[in-house]
């Protein structure tokens, strides 16, 4: 017996689809409502730490993810300059445990397609062009959900996994909003040079971080982290020229990256944000998870993993218990809020040290401390 029989989910990102997969596999009637008109994913690639891979295995999607992505051990640090000298080869904590790689990357659209396919195969109903626009709590045990301003039905639970600018979060009166951290990032999806076999980071030069992560046998995404700037109105051609210019201080594989940029690689720009909704994340029979509940700059690349853990813990409780009561919510918040908050605070601190040009900070200690904490299952 499960605590819920019929659940609505707003959003189609990793948290939403992970929840849909687990609930549908348990026999719950699941409706997923996504505002976008079709399956799509902003950005070029996504970095996945070991604890994200552990969740994928629990979902039953790890084999498909492994086949589409590129996974590796360790991290390379390089210095600016035409030869891009290697400064250090660092081992990474296997946050998913010994059975999974330390981390990896894959194209965001490929990951989105895998998760939707598995959710639908499990029995979830996924609707695109369907925006959650309202809700009406029915006593203490149900919520009516309105989609595109029309009633979509009455549900035992609404899960708001609708991203940074969550409509569900606003509808239930949570005032917490993502705040800029002061950094912005250029990203481009490019070809993977054969010598790039893991994530590599360059510190110093005209930007805070230059780096790239393999996402497949032939692909990777490259990025440059700078002071956050208003890039509104920058054309595609101008974006390429800016990224080309800011990357000129970096050699090695950046030569091949610049060739791809000059040939017309797609470039996007976003600001880093951070927020965490204080407990509780629910208001009655409505709860927010994933980016709707917390976000952080990708300085330790835990965003996707934390969203996936939210979904796994929530659905574990919903399918193992026979009632949605305060004990369930207390258990959920005890397992998720301190862990997500630790990741947000560490990620923001690492960025702040860079903004302050603080060379005495113990960044490795902070990174490895969080990684060891994440190695323990949520």
Summarize the structure.
With 378 residues, the chain is α+β, with helices and mostly antiparallel strands. It has helices spanning 14-25, 50-59, 62-68, 108-122, 167-171, 236-247, 254-262, 303-320, 326-355, 363-375, and strands at 6-10, 29-34, 45-49, 70-72, 75-78, 86-90, 103-107, 125-128, 132-138, 142-147, 150-155, 157-160, 179-191, 200-203, 209-214, 219-227, 267-276, 282-283, 286-288, 294-295.
Description:
The protein is α+β, with helices and mostly antiparallel strands and 378 residues long. The longest helix is centred in the C-terminal third of the chain and has 30 residues, at 326-355. The chain has a domain at 6-68 and 107-178 and 273-375: FAD/NAD(P)-binding domain, CATH 3.50.50.60. Strand 14 and strand 15 form a beta hairpin. The relative contact order is 0.18. 35% of the residues lie in helices and 29% in strands. It has ten helices and 20 strands.
What are the SSEs and their pairings?
Blueprint: E1 6-10, H1 14-25, E2 29-34, E3 45-49, H2 50-59, H3 62-68, E4 70-72, E5 75-78, E6 86-90, E7 103-107, H4 108-122, E8 125-128, E9 132-138, E10 142-147, E11 150-155, E12 157-160, H5 167-171, E13 179-191, E14 200-203, E15 209-214, E16 219-227, H6 236-247, H7 254-262, E17 267-276, E18 282-283, E19 286-288, E20 294-295, H8 303-320, H9 326-355, H10 363-375
Parallel strand pairs: 1-2, 1-12, 2-8, 5-14, 12-19
Antiparallel strand pairs: 3-7, 4-7, 5-6, 9-10, 10-11, 13-16, 13-17, 14-15, 15-16, 17-20, 18-19
Helix pairs in contact: 1-4, 1-8, 2-8, 6-7, 8-9, 9-10
């Amino acid at each position: 017996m499960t605590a819920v029989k019929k659940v609505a989910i707003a959003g189609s990102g990793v948290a939403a689809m992970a929840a849909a997969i687990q609930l549908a596999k348990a026999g719950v009637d699941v409706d997923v409502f996504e505002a976008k008109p079709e399956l799509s994913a902003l950005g070029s690639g996504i970095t996945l730490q070991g604890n994200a891979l552990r969740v994928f295995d629990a979902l039953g999607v790890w084999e498909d993810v492994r086949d589409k992505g590129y996974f590796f051990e360790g991290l390379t640090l390089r210095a600016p300059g035409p030869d891009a000298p290697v400064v250090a080869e660092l081992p990474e904590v296997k946050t998913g445990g010994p059975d999974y790689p330390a981390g990896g990357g894959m194209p965001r659209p490929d990951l989105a397609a895998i998760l939707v396919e598995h959710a639908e195969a499990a029995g979830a109903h996924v609707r695109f062009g369907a925006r959650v626009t309202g809700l009406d709590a029915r006593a203490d045990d149900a919520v009516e959900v309105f989609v595109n301003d029309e009633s979509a039905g009455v549900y035992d639970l609404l899960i708001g996994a609708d991203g940074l600018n969550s409509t569900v979060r606003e509808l239930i009166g949570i005032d917490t909003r993502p705040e800029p951290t002061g950094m912005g990032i250029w990203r481009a999806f490019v070809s993977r040079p054969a010598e790039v076999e893991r994530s590599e980071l360059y510190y110093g030069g005209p930007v805070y971080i230059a780096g790239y992560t393999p996402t497949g046998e032939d692909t990777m995404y490259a990025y440059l982290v700078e002071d956050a700037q208003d890039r509104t109105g920058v054309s595609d051609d101008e974006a390429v020229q800016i990224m080309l210019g800011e990357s000129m201080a970096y050699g090695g594989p950046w030569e091949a990256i610049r060739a791809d940029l000059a040939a017309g690689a797609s470039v996007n720009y976003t600001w880093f944000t951070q927020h965490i909704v204080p407990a509780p994340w629910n208001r009655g029979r409505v709860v927010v998870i994933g980016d709707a509940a917390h976000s952080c700059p990708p300085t330790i690349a835990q965003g996707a993993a934390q969203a996936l853990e939210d979904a796994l813990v929530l659905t574990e409780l919903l399918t193992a218990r026979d009632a949605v009561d305060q004990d369930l919510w207390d258990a959920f918040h005890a397992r998720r809020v301190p862990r997500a908050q630790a990741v947000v605070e560490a990620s923001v601190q690492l960025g702040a040290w860079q903004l302050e040009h603080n060379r005495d900070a113990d960044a490795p200690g902070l990174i490895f401390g969080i990684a060891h904490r994440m190695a323990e299952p949520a």
